[in-house]
Amino acid sequence: GLGAGGGADLLRARMRLSLQERLWAFYRERVNIPGEEQAAARRAALDICAELRVFLHAKLPDMPLREMYLSGSLYDDLQVVTADHAQLMVPMVLEKNLWSMVPGEDTIMNVPGFWLVRRENLEYFPRGSSYWDRCLVGGYLSPKAVLEVFDRLVAGSINWPAIGSVLDYVIRPVVPSETLTLEVQYETDRRLYVDFLPLLAMEDGGALIAKPHRPAAERHQNLWRQSFRAAETARLRALDREDGGCRCACLKLAKAVCKLNAALQRLNASQLTNALLLLSDTEGDWTQEALADRFLQLLRALVRHLEAGRLPCALNPKVNLLCELLEPEVDELGYTLYCALSDPEGLLRT
Ligand code: GDP
To answer: Which of 76, 176, 273, 295 has minimal Cβ neighbours within 10 Å of its Cβ?
Structure first.
């Protein structure tokens, strides 16, 4: 018959099974967004994007921009719970000979993952030679000043009520907002938040985005944030494709849990994605049946990272994805996840 140890194993197996079932049920019922809802949100975002393109072309034909486009989890099937946000990417064109990108670790601030964009050759090409010289602060292109340019336009000179009534939406800029965000009410009970995200293409195919470093200290004001989103999302998808794995499902579960639990809202998609990528380096079994084990392992890994105050970016280990969290925030996240380890199902009761 079963010894004491065997009984405990069996019990543990049964508990794990039930967590497994609960996770998949939660996934189907809360995490996953119905296709119809996603389509409606995408349509609303596209309508806004089209209006803005027309407006910017007409109003500011000189502004050196490439075509704006929509991006984010809504377009990668990685959004969870409600289809309620998207990014409107605004690619800015910089003259090659007038600007250079300085990595954050080579500056006095020493922050890998952030960059300064320095104006060059001012003696031959004086201030005003580049359209973006109006956003210079102390010799550097200021993302804050860039956002202010767009803010004046988007919040100040676009007649949103008029556009909204044509589209049958209620559109209003969100104030105050750290980035620049439009709230679009496209059905009585459905809202979409569209973030304006100016970006600069890098030579290696990467991008810098105008999303401020937090906490927003004076000395960080000119920093551009390197975006790893496209590369890390692609890597996660590729791994799942190779072995039919559940990494994306695991990520979406974690994102939903963080979105629905107030104490975990500070954890973002990038931190969760990278913790998963790091876990993938050492863990090979991502079959559907392993979901509960991998989910618990992800929680444990996050607790460890928070304790160490360090979560390296899988694409550039010098970047610490926890560097923008304040100490009390790290403590709260760590404590909440640590408690969740002994009652993971509590995370699903929201
Ligand atoms: P979600 O918002 O948690 O569903 O996750 P996303 O994967 O959509 O990430 C969106 C967040 O990543 C926003 O806060 C963006 O500011 C930030 N972000 C950083 N780089 C990028 C990028 O290249 N594209 C988009 N869309 N967002 C980015």
So the answer is: 176
